[in-house]
Amino acid sequence: MIISNDCIDNLLYSAIRSDKHLMVRKKSYFKRALQLIYLYGSVKKKIYFPKNRKVVLNYLDKSYIDFNDFKGSQEYKFDLEESELKPLYIAELLIIAAFLLNFKGAQRFFLKASTNIIVKLIKSRKIEALICGHPDLLISFLGFCLKKENKEVITVQHGIYNLSSYEVLWWEKEIANAIIVYGQEFKELYIKQGVQPEKVKLGTPYFNSAFKQRESQCVKPEISKGKVIFLGQQLYKISDMVFEGYNEFISFLINYYKNKQVEVYYKPHPREDIQQSLTSANISALKIYEKEGKPEDLYNNFDLYFSVNSSILIELYLQQKICYQVDITIGDFEYDNFKNFTGIPMVNIQTLANKLEIEKYHFHYSPDYLNIQLNNNEYMVNLVKGLIEKSIIE
Questions:
Q1: Domain match, 221 and 162 both
Q2: Domain count across the chain
Q3: CA–CA gap between residue 142 and residue 296 (Å, rounded)
């Protein structure tokens, strides 16, 4: 399998947004390389015995789609144990080496070696498809090899994309056979950037809604639990200019509630380094919410939720939680105003107090933005099933 220089660059670096983002990625992949060495030595290899079942490599968050609802599950296996995919540790290590060593000869050598491992694994494990959210290095290269073997590569929208600034990934355009999005607005985003319409499939978000689409419901914002929370993001990867405005708002929020007997919490993004996001003063003044994932108390123990444009803000809003989008400058980066598609108000330092004192807070959303179904899981399982089985028949 010949890999051109352009293909090498696209596979390794096309998702990198800036020099700072590149440095963050190099640091994280170096740590991942050390972890892979440890895993390879500690995970006992399990001999794989095919049982006439086609394998689908599922890299989605397990809470997104429950493939136990997949009719014909006796024909498909959606999850292999780590021990059954142990060769991928070496394959990923080789890909990371190619990423870190920006020299084409070495990159081609490492990627060729990784290709040999992955193709052998595809054939021995009867891998027919891959389904993922945002592809990391390993998933990108797995998809590349599966595409070369005429297998199905499906990517699913993994959060709320900015309609005004999201750039479709090279991998989505050139490698994925199908792209599943949350709504018609996001489908149009891909089509406008040159993706063939038939390749973009109308899916549904992984979250439901406690209220109907355009039927506006109203409540009065109140503080009863004595807690508000700011949902953090890795915005420092996008621009250095975000730091000042981000911290000014959080500092203002802390001071606003200081004499109101309301605690201000901060939930970091899973991969966020709060030392890069927050000033030392804000770190000291905030209560850091350290639980990972989406525990029940995140939904039930807070009165108000704030974020710049985190996807979970919309998810919480759809569960009838009172949410506010924070308006700050992020260099020349543009992000969508959620108010255009939902009832989430935009706030800044100047408008916060007035917004919090409004008598009515509205709940509604646009179905063109979020194609929420009565049974999201059944809808997505049937969509994925159709894509996989169609590719096998063809």
A1: no
A2: 2
A3: 35
Q: State which amino acid sits at residue 348.
A: N
User: How large a percentage of the chain has pLDDT more than 70?
Assistant: 93
Structural domain contains residue 162: yes
The model's pLDDT over 269-314, given as tens digits with 9 standing for 90+, comes to: 888 888 988 999 999 999 999 887 677 888 889 999 999 988 899 9
Residue the block writes with tokens 């063939």: 196
Rounded to whole angstroms, the Cα distance separating 210 from 138 reads 37
72: left (phi over 0), alpha (psi -120 to 50) or beta: left
Please check the confidence at residue 392 and state whether its pLDDT lies above 80.
no
Asked if residue 54 has pLDDT above 90, the reply is no
Residue 382 lies in a domain: yes
- Where does the chain show beta strands of DSSP type E? 54-58, 76-77, 127-132, 152-156, 178-181, 200-202, 217-219, 227-231, 263-267, 287-288, 304-307, 322-326, 346-347, 361-363
Q: And the tokens for 300?
A: 């039930």
Whether residue 251 is contained in a domain is answered as yes
Q: State whether the Cα torsion 194-200-202-208 is positive or negative.
A: negative
Task: Evaluate whether residue 88 is within a structural domain.
Answer: yes
pTM above 0.70, yes or no: yes
